Structure formats: C-alpha cells, structure tokens
C-alpha cells in the first residue's frame, strides 16, 4: 500500500466512524430499510427524516453520566 | 458507506485493524510471552510506586501501572466473568436484532457502540473526585481507582448491560421491580430520582465555583449557548443531518470563544462577565429550565455533539500530554490526612471517605442507568458486552488516573490554597499562605499571586470544586508539550471550558430525564401530568426538577463551611448507593438463575460498597466530630446560636442559621438514602433465600431464545465466545 492509499484508507475509516458515531449515517440506513419494507412508498427526504428523528429524541432523553 | 442492518450482510469494517485470530482457549506461546511481558511491565510500574519514598517519581509509572493492570484485567478477569458467569451466546439474537426498528433497536458496530457508551458514561465525575481525593496522597487514590474498576466498577457496568440486554433493554428500576419485588422496585425508583437531583446540584456547583469572578471563563462558557443554537439551526434547518461538519464548525467556534475570553477579560466588558457565585446560580437554574423545555434540536442535541467531540479529543490530548511531558509527582504518596481524617478538602478518614470521594472512575452507580438505557438496545452480539461494558469503564478509569496525575503534579501548597474552604483561607494571598502553612505546607503569597497571574485569573484562592485545580494541572502539562508558558492561560481556560461543557450537558440531559421520571411517577397519581405532550405538565415537572437541584446548588454556593466540602460526600454516598442497588439486582439475578456459585463476582463488590456507604452514612449521621457528622455540626452551631455566639467560619448569625438548616437537610437526606437502599437489599435478600431453598431456579424475566441470523466475519470459527480486543 502506498502512503497515499494508506492515508485514503485512514480518512475513509475516520469518516465512517464519525458518521456512525454521530448518527449521521442513520438516514441512509433508514431509507434502505424503508425501501425493503415498503417498496412502493416514497422515502422521506433528509429534512423530513430529521424532523422524525428529533421528535423521537424529544421523548427519549438519554442520561449522561457524571 | 452505510451499514446495512440486513442479517446477511456484514457491517463495514474494511479499514479497521485486522482482527486477531481467535478460537482455542489454550494460549499460544506467543500470547503467553506477550501477556507475561504486559504483566511484568505493570508490576514494574507498581513496584516503582511502592518502593519510592521521599524521592520524586515520574507520573509515567502511574500510567504504566494502571495500563498494565487494565490489560491483564481485561484479558483475564473480564474473560473469566464472561465465560463462566454470564455465558453469552452469540447464536442467540440480541434485542437489537429481534426488535430492530431502525430507531430504538438497531444492531450497531461494536466500535461505534463503544464510542457511544463511553461518551454517555464519562463526564466530569472522574475528573473531579480524584482531584479532591489527592489530599490523601496519590497512592490510595490510584490503588482504589485501579482495583475498584477491575473488580467492581467495570463488572457492574458489564453485568447490568448484559442483564438489561437479556431483558430487551429494561431500565434498572424496572429490573429491580421485576426481579426483586414491588417494595424494592419502588424504593429503587425513588432512590434513583433523589440521587440524580443531588448529582446535578453538585455538578452544577463545580461549574459555579470554576466560573465565579472569572470573566474569561464565564464568557467562553456563556458563548457555548449561542454556538449550540447556531449549530442546531445549521443542522436542523440549513443542512439537515450534517452532524459531522456542524460539529467541526462548532469546535472551531468554541476555540475562538476561548481565545475571545482573553480579549473580553482585558476590555471594558470584563465587569459584565464578572459574576458572583449567587448570580451564577440563578443563571444556571434559569438556563437549566429553558434547556429542558426547548425543543432538543435547538440546544441539547448540538451541545451533546460538541461535548462528545471535546471529550474524546481532550482526553486523547491529555494522555499524550502526560506521556510526553512526563511530569513529576509533587504530592506525597500517602499524606497525613489519610489517617488523621482532618483534611481541609473533605473531612473524614481514608476508610470510608476516600472510596466515597472517588466514585466515577472506580465504581459509579450512575453507569447502571446508562448501561440499562440505550446501549443494550444497540448491541449486535451478546459477547460484545465485554468490550462495551467492561472496556468503556476501563477507559473511564484511565481518565480518572490522569486527573489524579494532574492534581498530584501540582505543588501541594498551591493545591491546598486552591482547595481548602474559603472560611479557612481568607481572601488575600497573605492569609491563604498562612493558612496553608498551618496545614503543614508552604506557598509564599508571591508564588500564589504568580500562579494566578500565569493563568490570568484574579485569584486561585479557595477555588474548590476540583475543576480549577485540574485546569491548572492540565495547563502545566499541556504548556510543557504544546506552546510553552505563553499558552498557559489558554490551556487553563480550555480545561475549564471542557469541564463546564461536560457538566452543562449532563445538567441538560439530567433535567430532562428527571422530568420524564417525575411525569411518570406523578402520572400514576394524576393522569394528565404523565402525558408527554401536555405543556403545563412539562413546565411544572421541569420546574420541580430544576428547583430541586437548584436548591442544593444554591445552598452549596452560599454555604459558609464550603459547599463542596459539605455536599461532595453526599454526592459520593448517593452515587455509591446507586451502585449498591445495581449490584443487588445483579447478584439477585445470578442467584435466581442458579448461579449461586458465581454470585461472589457481584456479591463481593456489593458487600464492599455496602460497607463503605453504610460506614460513611453512619459517620455522617452519628459522628460526634462536627467536621464529619451532620447532626453534631448542627448541634454545635445551634448551641452557638442559643449562646448568641458566631462560630467561625460563619461570619454572622444568619450564617449560623444557614449552617444549621443545611446540615439538617443533608443529614436527613443521607438517612433517607440509607433507608431506601436497605429496603432494596432486604427485599432482595428474601428473594435470594427463597431462590437458594427452591429446588428449581426461580423464574426470571429473561426474553426467550431466538436464533440469531447475523453472522459476523470474525465469528466464523466454531468457538461461540470470541474474545474481542479493544
């Protein structure tokens, strides 16, 4: 592996990790899931999905420890 | 790069470190060699700590001893607990797989979940406790943090996580009710709520003490509110869902805010941001209320992201700093206060109060709430509880070790000038210097002024609460590695900001969680209040929660005897009592499910935590020493009032009345906590006896077995229990 390829791999890993950690990747997964379960329904846009996600978060607070 | 959650597909792990081949339980010669080396390195670290007396030793030895012990514990003890006691089965579907809904339940890559779980459990606790405990020397704290986490804290986190996972992610309170009984369950629920209130009050007090009379700190922490609002707007309205980019922008703005604080401090705006403790209390209470009723996307969610990024980044930076700068320990290994119990930071002798003061980092009951909340609903494979439950707690313990190092590398004179109560130190450099000399340490008034000047604070005298001490220690370490003395003030305020951010995130989230608990409880009495969308109910419950922790915050900020000195033991006892509840649930389930032989795994830590909390609670209630016992303290000041005397450090009769009220409230609260936990344990004991006498295992509420369809690449071997490495 060249240095360049290695750097690219590290970047992709970091990007994947951060997107997963922050939940940014949830939307992609949600769409995929929806297409599988309801193939004829349209998938929500990113904006619509964020509204759904926030609404859920509103009623499911997560404790943060000390 | 999205991770498809379909059963057949593996999660993306192309760039991860190659998984070690696992399988046979017999160790290969190479592995034996490796672990012998690790054991030797750790032993050398402990040896150096044990044998050096009088000479100065490098903090690196502490790091080596701790990391060596963690590695051995993870490899051997956690594996033993997993294989012999918990017996996870990777062919069994986890709730994340069975109940997958893409929202609450979702099989998540273990490395991602480790990050999530770590971010949820680690906060300001492991940073504050060890700093205060440094008054007994660095050795007792280090021993407790390392031994405590290995045999108690990490075991508790892992077992609770496992039990909750086997019960579809039930909360600790629900598990207590289902496995122990109605009385135990109700007592556990009330205890959890009350303990959370104390926790929020004490944590907020740390922020107040760090920001009082510090325009730089107050400005930069205040700026996190507009920054969070901007981030919320950006990722909700402008670029929906772009969390990573928004967080990076937020971190950049945060650093700017820290730099800007320096400018504010030297401008005409300085007075606007110079606030007294009492003003800060009202600001925080107001903020807490607003944050808990605003939509989450505006303030809470963005602040949470910001805090997570700062947390992981700063902790990594601190680890690098400690190893590169290799500071020398200046505190004694074991100080005289360890045996005399007359320390100015917190009163009481080593047993039990050291174990109360250092809760997070060694054993933290609060983690049981996190481990029975979101995390169990996201686990992909049962055996991963080891890496996520045990591993994340080891990481938190390492944070505590670094905080201890930061405090113990400070000159003891400076440490006591910052951490003794204001009533003892007075307000001038001269009076503080004299008071420190009275404690048996030296710092000249000039050195004290210089130290404050170096970090551009008005004063460092009586800046108790742990955060400023840690910040001075961190600024020493960081400036030794990055930027030299010129950046010392920046690093100090960076550290203050970092802690305040954690704590405010905990306060936001905690107030919200508390509000839901209260709505749930009151909903049983009067239906409408339980409805999560009924605004007056939300406002009322949020108000009650905020007022409750605000009360403790206010009394702490105005207590003539020093709020941290008074309240921190209460916080420690509360947190450890929660651990007692969690370990009781664990032990009961082990016994009920026919694992009496292994019940000591959680039973011994339970016995230990009961011993420390009940001894500490007993002393806090019944001790004749007014520095330790709340009621002895109350009697002393009440007698003073009757005789018309003002007893120092109180300055007026009003102060005297404040002391009487506070010590009564604190004493009654401790008694109440002990009573609640006694109910839980007594109820559990009855259940355990019944279980032992019963010829068949008693029914537990474990969810039925369903075959898993997820196949992970590293689990292709016949061995179902794959030892994952962190």
Walk me through this protein's architecture.
The complex is a heterodimer of chains A (66) and B (726). Chain A contains three helices and no strands. Chain A has 66 residues and is mainly α. Chain A has one domain. The mean pLDDT of chain A is 89. Chain B is mostly helical. Residues 1-23 and 716-726 of chain B have low confidence and may be disordered. The two termini of chain B are 23 Å apart. Chain B has one domain (37-213, 275-334, 345-693): Amino acid/polyamine transporter I. Chain B has helices at 29-51, 60-86, 95-98, 110-121, 125-133, 138-166, 172-179, 182-211, 215-238, 243-265, 277-293, 300-325, 337-340, 350-357, 367-371, 385-408, 412-419, 422-425, 429-439, 445-454, 467-481, 488-523, 527-530, 535-558, 563-592, 600-622, 630-642, 653-693. In chain B, 68% of the residues lie in helices and 0% in strands. Chain B is globular, with a radius of gyration of 25 Å. At the A-B interface, helix 1, helix 2 and helix 3 of A face helix 4, helix 10, helix 12, helix 15 and helix 22 of B.
């Amino acid at each position: 592996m060249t240095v360049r390829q290695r750097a690219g791999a590290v970047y992709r890993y970091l990007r994947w990790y951060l997107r997963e950690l922050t939940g940014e990747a949830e939307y992609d997964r949600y769409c995929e899931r929806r297409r599988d379960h309801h193939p004829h329904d349209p998938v929500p846009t990113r904006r619509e999905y964020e509204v759904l996600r926030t609404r859920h978060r509103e009623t499911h607070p997560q404790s943060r420890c000390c | 790069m999205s991770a498809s959650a379909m059963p057949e597909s593996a999660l993306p792990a192309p760039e991860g470190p190659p998984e070690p081949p696992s399988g046979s339980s017999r160790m290969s010669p190479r592995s034996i060699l490796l672990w012998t080396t690790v054991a030797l390195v750790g032993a050398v670290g402990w040896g150096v700590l044990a044998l050096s007396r009088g000479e100065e030793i490098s903090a690196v030895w502490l790091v080596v001893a701790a990391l060596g012990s963690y590695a051995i514990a993870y490899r051997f003890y956690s594996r033993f607990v997993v294989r012999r006691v918990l017996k996870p089965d990777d062919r069994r579907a986890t709730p994340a797989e069975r109940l997958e809904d893409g929202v609450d339940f979702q099989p998540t890559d273990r490395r991602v979940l480790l990050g999530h779980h770590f971010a949820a459990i680690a906060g300001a606790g492991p940073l504050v406790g060890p700093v205060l405990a440094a008054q007994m020397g660095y050795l007792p704290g280090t021993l407790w943090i390392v031994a405590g986490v290995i045999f108690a804290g990490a075991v508790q986190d892992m077992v609770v996580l496992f039990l909750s996972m086997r019960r579809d992610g039930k909360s600790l309170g629900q598990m207590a009710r289902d496995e122990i009984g109605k009385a135990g369950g109700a007592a556990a629920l009330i205890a959890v709520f009350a303990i959370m209130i104390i926790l929020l009050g004490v944590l907020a007090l740390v922020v107040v003490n760090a920001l009082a009379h510090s325009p730089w700190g107050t400005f930069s922490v205040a700026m996190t509110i507009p920054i969070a609002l901007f981030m919320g707007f950006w990722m909700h309205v402008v670029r929906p869902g772009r969390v990573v980019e928004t967080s990076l922008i937020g971190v950049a703005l945060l650093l700017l805010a820290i730099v800007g604080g320096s400018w504010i401090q030297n401008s005409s705006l300085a007075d606007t941001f110079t606030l007294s403790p009492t003003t800060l209390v009202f600001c925080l209470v107001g903020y807490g209320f607003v944050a808990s009723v605003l939509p989450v996307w505006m303030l809470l969610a963005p602040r949470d992201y910001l805090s997570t990024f700062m947390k992981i980044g700063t902790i990594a930076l601190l680890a690098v700093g400690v190893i590169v700068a290799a500071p020398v320990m200046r505190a004694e290994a074991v100080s005289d206060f360890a045996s005399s119990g007359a320390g100015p930071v917190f009163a009481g002798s080593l047993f039990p109060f050291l174990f109360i003061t250092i809760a997070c980092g060694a054993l933290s009951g609060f983690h049981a709430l996190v481990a029975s909340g979101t995390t169990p609903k996201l686990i992909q494979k049962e055996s991963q509880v080891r890496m996520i439950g045990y591993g994340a707690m080891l990481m938190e313990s390492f944070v505590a070790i670094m905080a201890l190092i930061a405090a113990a590398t400070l000159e003891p004179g400076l440490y006591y000038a910052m951490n003794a109560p204001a009533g003892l130190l007075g307000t001038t450099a001269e009076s503080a210097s004299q008071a420190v000399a009275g404690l048996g340490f030296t710092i000249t008034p000039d050195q004290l002024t210089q130290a404050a000047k170096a970090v551009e604070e008005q004063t460092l005298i009586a800046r108790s609460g742990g955060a400023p001490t840690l910040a001075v220690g961190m600024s020493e370490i960081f400036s030794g590695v990055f930027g030299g003395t010129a950046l010392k003030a920046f690093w100090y305020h960076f550290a203050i900001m970092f802690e305040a951010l954690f704590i405010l995130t905990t306060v936001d989230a905690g107030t919200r969680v508390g509000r839901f608990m209260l709505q749930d409880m009151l909903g049983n009495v009067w239906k409408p209040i339980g409805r999560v969308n009924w605004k007056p109910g939300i406002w009322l419950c949020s108000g009650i929660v905020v007022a409750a922790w605000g009360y403790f915050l206010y009394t702490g900020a105005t207590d003539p005897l020093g709020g941290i000195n008074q309240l921190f033991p209460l916080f420690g006892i509360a947190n450890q009592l929660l651990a007692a509840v969690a370990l009781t649930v664990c032990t009961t389930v082990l016994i009920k499910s026919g694992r009496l032989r292994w019940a000591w795994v959680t039973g011994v830590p339970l016995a230990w935590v009961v011993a420390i909390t009940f001894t500490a609670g007993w002393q806090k209630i019944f001790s004749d020493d007014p520095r330790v016992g709340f009621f002895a303290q109350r009697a002393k000041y009440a007698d003073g009032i009757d005789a018309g005397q003002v007893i120092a450090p109180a300055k007026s009769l009003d102060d005297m009345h404040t002391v009487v009220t506070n010590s009564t409230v604190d004493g009654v609260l401790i008694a109440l906590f002990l009573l609640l936990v006694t109910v839980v344990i007594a109820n559990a004991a009855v259940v355990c006896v019944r279980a032992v006498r019963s010829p068949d295992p008693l029914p537990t509420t474990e969810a039925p077995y369903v075959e898993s369809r997820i196949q992970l690449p590293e689990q292709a071997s016949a061995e179902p229990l794959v030892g994952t490495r962190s």
